[in-house]
Specification:
By secondary structure, the chain is an alpha/beta fold. It has helices at residues 20-28, 48-58, 71-81, 98-107, and strands spanning 7-13, 35-41, 62-66, 86-89. Helix 2 (48-58) links the parallel strand 2 (35-41) and strand 3.
Length: 129
């Protein structure tokens, strides 16, 4: 069965109650159906699981799963469960800007690419107009 998911966003989440919602919102605010967000909770002792469940119930593109502690365990489980042609790793305290989402989806349509690499911006250095 061929998946219609173009990009799977994998987000390891450990004690991320203060940032997980804004991270997810930055991704799903981009109105694209060909994406999925895999929140991989891995042993949090705060409200990360409850917040993630609320988000999962609100949007069918979001899926919550659980792994053993450790970011590598979370990413590996996310890779196993990903349905997308492409995988993007996002940390739970990151936000993905709308223009970057557009670039991701534009670039993901290249059939002959094996890997696409991007950098990041640290908010201290962002120039706001």
């Amino acid at each position: 069965m061929k998946s219609d998911i173009l990009i799977s966003f994998i987000i390891p989440a450990y004690n991320a109650e203060e940032t997980i919602e804004s991270c997810i919102e930055s991704i799903i605010s981009y109105k694209e159906e060909a994406l999925e967000v895999l929140i991989v909770e891995n042993g949090s002792s705060d409200m990360t699981t409850e917040i993630s469940q609320k988000l999962e119930n609100r949007d069918a593109r979001i899926k919550l799963c659980h792994s053993e502690k450790g970011v590598s365990n979370a990413r590996n489980l996310g890779i196993e469960k990903a349905a997308g042609k492409w995988i993007v790793f996002v940390d739970a305290d990151d936000k993905v800007r709308t223009e970057h989402m557009k670039n991701l989806f534009d670039d993901a349509k290249y059939e002959d690419a094996d890997m696409i690499l991007y950098g990041h911006f640290y908010k201290k250095y962002w120039k706001h107009s």
